[in-house]
Write a structure and sequence with these properties.
two-stranded antiparallel ribbon; alpha/beta; about 15% strand; single chain; globular; 12 strands; 8-stranded parallel β-sheet
C-alpha cells in the first residue's frame, strides 16, 4: 500500500502496521485489558444517525470554530501523544508542521520527544501542552515555566493516569521507552530495517522535557504503564489542579473528564475547557465512550466551559455528530499517529486532508453552512 492509496484512518493503520516493528505498532494500536473501551469509542458513533436537511444553499461553508480562546480553521485538532519520534524520526516536528498547515491546535505531551522550547519557536499556530503531574515537584514547575517562556497557548492537565492501565499488548511485546531489544522482539526490529536505521543513526531518542530531571524513559527503559504508576503523583487532587491552574494563569483544560460531577468541579476551579476522554481506552477498560457521555456533560456545563470530544474518531461524520450534540471541537491521537508512522509529515497532512474533505462534504450534505447550524435536531439515536 502507498500513501496515495490511504483514503481513511484504517488505510493508514494498515500502512503503519507494515512499516513499524511489532512492539511499536502495538503500543499505538493497543489499549487496556480486553480493549472493550477502545473498540466502543468508535462504535458509539454507529448508534447515532444523522438527519440531513436539503436546499440550504451550501456552495460556501465555514468549518471554523473557536476553542480555548483560539479560532481554528477546522473543528478537529491533534491531541497530545507521547514518544512520537519512535513512530517516525521527525516526530512532533512533522505533526506540528502539519497542524500549522491546517491551522488547528497541536498538542505535545510531557513525554514528548521534542522540547517545549523548540515547538514554541517553530510552530506559529495554537499550541497545547499536556501536563503529567510527577512526584518531582521541581520537574512540574519547570515544565509550566517552560510553557510560559515558549508562549504556549494552553495547558491540558491529564487527570486519568493516576496509575498506568493494564496494556497487555505491551506486556506481550515487551515495549518500553526507549525500546529494549529482546529475543522475542529482535526479529521484528530486524525485519523493519528502515525504522531501525532511523532509530539508530538519527538524532538520539530522548524525552526532551524530562531528561534533565529523570533517567526513566530516556536512558532507562521502562514501559509507559510502569512509568505512570511509579513516576506520577498519585496524590493529585482538585486542590492541586486548582493550584496548577492559578500558577499557569492562561487557558486551562482538564483532559480525561468523563462524569458530570467532575465536569462541574472543573468549572468550579476555573478551568476553561475539558476534554471528554478515556485516554483512548488505554486506562480503565469497561468505561463509557466519550461520545456516549457527551450529551449529559454538555447539558450540565456546556454554557460555561469549552467541551471537547476526544477519542474514537475516524470519520468526518463522527465529528459532525459530536458537534451536533454540543461539543466545541473534537480531537484525536491514533488518527494521526498511524499516518505519522506510515509517511511522516506527508502522512499527517493527507489524513487531515481526508478528514477535512469529509467534514466539508458531510456539512454540505447535512445542509449546514457553518458549525452553528448543527444541533441535536440533526440526530436520532437507535
Amino acid at each position: 500500500m502507498r500513501l496515495d492509496q490511504c483514503h481513511n484512518v484504517d488505510d493508514f493503520r494498515k500502512l503503519a502496521k507494515a512499516r513499524l516493528p511489532g512492539p511499536v505498532f502495538h503500543y499505538i494500536d493497543g489499549a487496556a485489558d480486553d480493549e472493550v473501551t477502545r473498540r466502543r469509542n468508535t462504535a458509539a458513533y454507529d448508534a447515532c444517525d444523522l438527519v440531513p436537511n436539503v436546499l440550504a444553499g451550501v456552495q460556501e461553508i465555514d468549518t471554523s470554530v473557536t476553542v480555548m480562546g483560539k479560532r481554528i480553521a477546522m473543528p478537529l485538532f491533534l491531541s497530545p501523544t507521547a514518544l512520537q519520534r519512535l513512530f517516525h524520526w521527525r516526530g512532533e516536528r512533522a505533526v506540528g508542521a502539519a497542524a500549522e498547515k491546517f491551522d488547528t491546535w497541536f498538542g505535545i505531551s510531557s513525554l514528548a520527544t521534542v522540547s517545549i522550547d523548540e515547538i514554541g519557536r517553530t510552530i506559529s499556530t495554537p499550541k497545547l501542552f499536556q501536563l503529567y503531574v510527577h512526584k518531582d515537584k521541581g520537574l512540574n514547575a519547570a515544565m509550566v515555566a517552560a510553557c510560559k517562556a515558549a508562549k504556549f497557548d494552553a495547558i491540558a492537565l491529564t487527570v486519568d493516569t493516576i496509575v498506568g492501565g493494564n496494556r497487555e499488548r505491551c506486556l506481550r511485546t515487551g515495549f518500553t521507552s526507549p525500546p529494549r531489544i529482546t529475543p522475542s522482539s529482535a526479529l521484528s526490529f530486524a525485519m523493519h530495517p528502515r525504522w531501525t536505521l532511523d532509530y539508530l543513526l538519527r538524532e538520539p531518542f530522548e524525552l526532551s522535557n524530562l531528561k534533565d530531571h529523570l533517567d526513566e524513559g530516556s536512558r532507562k527503559s521502562m514501559s509507559v504503564g510502569e512509568y505512570f504508576t511509579t513516576m506520577l503523583d498519585q496524590s493529585l487532587d482538585w486542590k492541586a489542579a486548582a493550584a496548577i491552574r492559578a500558577d499557569w494563569g492562561g487557558e486551562f483544560c482538564l483532559k480525561g473528564i468523563m462524569s458530570v460531577g467532575d465536569a462541574r468541579r472543573a468549572v468550579d476551579i476555573g478551568a476553561t475547557a475539558i476534554m471528554v476522554s478515556n485516554h483512548g481506552g488505554r486506562q480503565l477498560d469497561g468505561s463509557r465512550s466519550p461520545f456516549d457521555q457527551l450529551a449529559e456533560i454538555v447539558d450540565a456545563v456546556g454554557d460555561r466551559i469549552d467541551v471537547i470530544c476526544d477519542g474514537g474518531i475516524t470519520r468526518g461524520s463522527h465529528i459532525l455528530k459530536a458537534l451536533s450534540v454540543g461539543a466545541k471541537a473534537c480531537s484525536g491521537g491514533r488518527l494521526y499517529l498511524y499516518a505519522l508512522a506510515a509517511a511522516g509529515q506527508a502522512g499527517v497532512e493527507r489524513t487531515l486532508g481526508n478528514l477535512q474533505a469529509e467534514i466539508v462534504r458531510d456539512m454540505k450534505l447535512m445542509g449546514a453552512k457553518s458549525v452553528a447550524d448543527l444541533s441535536r435536531e440533526n440526530l436520532r439515536w437507535r
